[in-house]
């Protein structure tokens, strides 16, 4: 351990390093030791091993912080930080990665794709997400977002032979790289006006400037556009429906949950940290983006016939709701964002995994019509999908209600009555299109279709997401405490 | 930077960046669009280096290296994806890559 890599640095960064190493290990095992098909499940075990390691380490980090009574542990001279916020998001990433990975096994078999590369990319992407949640320096944040995005570009285009998957990948790649370019231009301006890449120093420099300083305005505008691209908020959402539809469904689930949660972590670090003094500049931008996201997301979803595309638009509208928490900006609002992201992660993942289960060798199973009569054929899946859809619509006693409750509460507390009314109106629109799926599952006649592709992994993934979606709605206290712990920044 | 003041470099960087953005929005070939993104990143590098020189620090230089690394990785992944698109469609016009519509 040298001056540049102390014991504290190691303690904070080790989950990210181990995730990347486990990712490489999966690739090496795939290449050398397990080329035969019957050994593929060991690759999944390596991934789960990596996640267990990460989970145990996060647990110890959390205990260490509370035992020492510290609110944060700064590493690498202020480039990385271990605090409640980073731990909260890293727990979401661990849960999302395990659930997506165990649900992917059978799907990859059906598509006839490689397992090793897939699990390796998931692990390395999660390593990038770690830096987004824990980074407090423009360099670490930029490397984190690019590491995550590069893995996702490849994963979205994972089905090389399928036109739809290629198309999704090229659209995601071009728009993602463009948004990164805009964002990093804003970073260069922030560096120029503060003389540092550390978020804390930048915060002081931003506070010292006039709110309408042209250079600061340009920096905030380009960074905001880049961040809104990453969280797929309108009007920068164009890539999301195509990428979500064309990507393999398991990757869509990971993109909708992991990438979005990580991007929101990044967004909250920027707006609540160095840019918090620039609120007069970015608040109108965010209000516009939130209202547009809810409008476009909810209106466009009404006419969709593809479930993945419908859920993509619904995920755009959810980004709008989460942004409203930041617009409110008080304690309730920030806590509401954390709660909403947690809730969103499990209900969205669950809904996508039901679509994964509908994929069979002979049937793509992504249309609303493919769900016709699901209640007669596989009642368990139909009921679980109903729970996820109720939660996505925000109907009690499911988790989605708790998420929306705090956002609305924050809006009312801060006097944003018009925004609250608009948001509530769009909840009604959302109920309409979610219930198109419900009607198809419960009312329509069943067509002759092959049985669902169920495996232990898919069942466990659905059970976990389903139970959590219900429990968070009925007994939210422990999850609210968890979200509260993320606020100690 | 004895001769030229900082603002010249920043203006050049802004012009290059704007050219990249304009090319991204208006060009119709995937490779050209991709090159425009590289142009944007290089404009960012110029602005980092100019600031860094003016502030007499190395932070900006280091950032420029990281941007170059990211640009290289992005080019590797991007060209691979463009190759698969070309294999499947035998075309690199953006308008041909639009099978998914709303």
Task: Provide structural commentary.
The complex is a heterodimer of chains A (489) and B (102). With 489 residues, chain A is mainly alpha-helical. In chain A, 76% of the residues lie in helices and 2% in strands. Chain A has helices spanning 7-33, 40-68, 84-111, 116-134, 138-156, 163-194, 199-208, 214-230, 239-246, 249-272, 279-301, 307-328, 331-358, 374-377, 379-393, 399-413, 417-442, 456-474, 477-485; strands at residues 72-75, 80-83. In chain A, helix 5 (138-156) packs antiparallel against helix 6 and helix 11 runs antiparallel to helix 12. Chain A starts with 6 loop residues before the first helix and ends with a helix. The mean pLDDT of chain A is 92. Chain B has helices at residues 6-26, 30-55, 59-89. In chain B, helix 1 packs antiparallel against helix 2 and helix 2 runs antiparallel to helix 3 (59-89). The mean pLDDT of chain B is 92. Chains A and B meet through helix 5, helix 6 and helix 9 of A and helix 1, helix 2 and helix 3 of B.
Helix/sheet category of chain B: mainly alpha
Multimer state: heterodimer
Mean pLDDT of chain A: 92
Overall shape of chain B? elongated
Extract low-pLDDT stretches of chain B: none
What percent strand of chain A? under 5%
CATH C-level name of the domain at 28-89 in chain B: Mainly Alpha
Indicate the percent of residues in helices of chain A. over 70%
**Biggest β-sheet of chain A, characterized?**
2 strands, antiparallel
Please name the CATH topology of the domain at 28-89 in chain B. Helix Hairpins
Mean pLDDT of chain B: 92
Q: How many β-strands of chain A, per DSSP? A: 2
Pair of chains with the largest interface and how many residues each contributes: A-B, 45 and 44 residues
The main β sheet of chain B shows up as: none
Provide a count of the helices of chain B: 3
Order of helices and strands of chain B: HHH
Strands side by side in the biggest sheet of chain A: 1-2
